[in-house]
Amino acid sequence: MTATHTEDSAIRAVIGNWVSAVAANDIAAITEVYAEDGSILAAGAPPMQGHAAIAAFWDGLLKASAGTLTFGPTSIRVADGAAMACELGTYSFTTAANGSKTRNSGKYVVVWIKQNDGWKVLVDSLVRE
């Protein structure tokens, strides 16, 4: 088994835990996926950096999406040296307001960094379709 394959598998395991934390509305577990200095970049919003800002973002997203959020990678590329990786993926969720539902979907890029305690999200950038 190559180091790249091993690291890809490790990242996919973290993503699996992340998806489970989202399904459980577990903001603390979601936040722990991110590095302490991690950032979220979302269209129309200022950059959010650090665990407090990331927790606030996810709290709002989970409330707005009411259990409909799905996301997952389409590809993961581990850099030479296996200290960083890039994940490309898609997401979708539905929001409801004033009796109507709106489907939201898009793509994302996640930059992963390997730290002493495992793989963490350094940058999470969302692009709405």
Overall description:
The protein is about 30% helix and about 45% strand. It has about 130 residues and is an alpha+beta fold.
Through-space gap between termini:
37 Å
Average pLDDT reading: 94
H/E order of the elements?
HHEEHEEEE
Fraction in beta strands: over 45%
Number of strands: 6
Q: What strand line-up does the widest sheet have?
A: 2-1-6-5-4-3
Kindly provide the radius of gyration, computed on alpha-carbon positions and rounded to a whole number of angstroms.
15 Å
Number of helices: 3
- The gross shape turns out to be globular
| Sheet having the most strands | 6 strands, mixed
Low-confidence stretches: none
Helicity level, as a percent range? 25-40%
Short structural summary:
With 129 residues, the protein is an alpha+beta fold. It contains 3 helices and 6 strands. The N and C termini lie far apart (37 Å).
Output the keywords:
single chain; 129 residues; alpha+beta; 6-stranded mixed β-sheet; 3 helices; 32% helix; globular
